[in-house]
Amino acid sequence: MRKPIPVDEAIERVMAWCREGEKEYISLEQCDGRILAEHIEATMPIPWFDRSPYDGYALSAEATTEASSDHPILLEVVATVGAGTVWDGLLTPKQAVKIMTGAAIPDGANAVIMVELTKEIEKEGKRFVQIRRKVDEGENISRVGEDMKQGEIVVEKGTMIHPGIVAVLATFGYDRVPVMKKPKVAIISTGSELLHVYEPLEKGKIRNSNAYMLQAQIRRAGGEPILFGKVADTFEHTLQVIQKALREADVVITTGGVSVGDFDYMPHVYEHLGAQLLFNKVAMRPGSVTSAAVFEKKMLFGLSGNPSACYVGFELFARPFIKAMLGQSKRYLTRAQAVLQKDFLKPNPFTRFVRASVSHQDGMLHVEPVGKDKSNIVSSLAQANALLVLPGGTRGFQAGSRVDVLLLHDEGDCVWS
Ligand code: AMP
Ligand code: MG
Question: 333-411: which CATH topology?
Answer without folding.
Answer: Beta-clip (2.40.340)
